[in-house]
Amino acid sequence: MAPPSIILYDVPSASPEAWAPNIWRIRFVLNYKRLPYRTVWVEFNDVERTLRSIGAPPSSTGRDGRPVYALPVISVPQRSPAPPITLSTANVIAEYLEVTFPARPVFPEGSRALQVVFVHYLNDVVIKPLLAIMVPLSHLRLPEHAQAHFRGPAAAGMPGYLAPGPQREQAWQAVKEKFDTLAALLDKNSGADGDGVVAMGRELSYADFAVCSVLVWIERVSPHDGWARMRQWNNGRWARLWDRCRDHMDVL
Predict the structure, then answer these.
(1) Under DSSP, is residue 154 helix (H, G, I), strand (E, B) or coil?
(2) What is the spatial distance between Cα 90 and Cα 74, in angstroms, rounded to a whole number?
(3) What burial letters (b/e) apply to 24-40, b meaning 16+ CB within 10 Å?
(4) Which helix (H) or strand (E) holds 67?
(5) Model confidence pLDDT, tens digit, residues 157-203
(6) In a 10 Å sphere around its CB, with 0-12 CB exposed, 13-18 middle and 19+ buried, how is residue 231 labelled?
(7) Rounded to two decimals, what is the model's pTM?
(8) Please, are residues 209 and 120 in contact by the beta-carbon 8 Å criterion?
(9) Rounded-to-integer distance, Cα 72 and Cα 112, Å
(10) Which residues 6+ apart lie within 8 Å of 13 measured at CB?
(11) Prior bond of 81 cis (ω within 30°)
């Protein structure tokens, strides 16, 4: 009998493709570790209700002091009669999976702290200018009934959407500057120190999956604009990272 599957909760788009970057980060880890799992799709408007119903911890606390429920979330089956272990937030989930299923590590020995710092830098600095472009485009990828949550009852069009033109070009230039800096840092792993593609030298790690999750987000949501640009940046570095991660892009 096959072992019970881990459940990964994800939010669907109007197309069949998975797109959300934080959830992709965990999907990469599950695939890389070859762990049995299945995706359960939760409509955006049902996320809080669903996560409360399975006992998922809140991912953060809002300014009003109320708990905030957000994906990714996983549910890990335990030996009966123990209930499943349910976890939220990408870093917490990744560290749990590493400790519980240590084969094919994503945190090579002694690297966990530095990799978590790297991911914070990625989220807080590198992709910050990307949000102005990608968040409205992502909302437009949701099913129509979920889009209404962001538009509001009277809004015509998606708030914050940057139409093609000078403002969007300026936004992409700001994104490129951040990725240029990130590329220069990662280039230090060239020559004797590594292959010049991955963060830990030669083997894929959690840091690479965090970066590639952003690349997947861009490729799925903005394939003909955003990804067409990025795959050319930094002498094709990001396309090469995509290729290194390609074997771990299954959606199960």
Answers:
(1) coil
(2) 10
(3) bbbbbbbbbbebebebe
(4) strand 67-68
(5) 555 677 778 898 999 999 999 999 999 999 998 888 889 899 999 99
(6) middle
(7) 0.93
(8) no
(9) 20
(10) 19, 141, 142, 143, 220
(11) yes
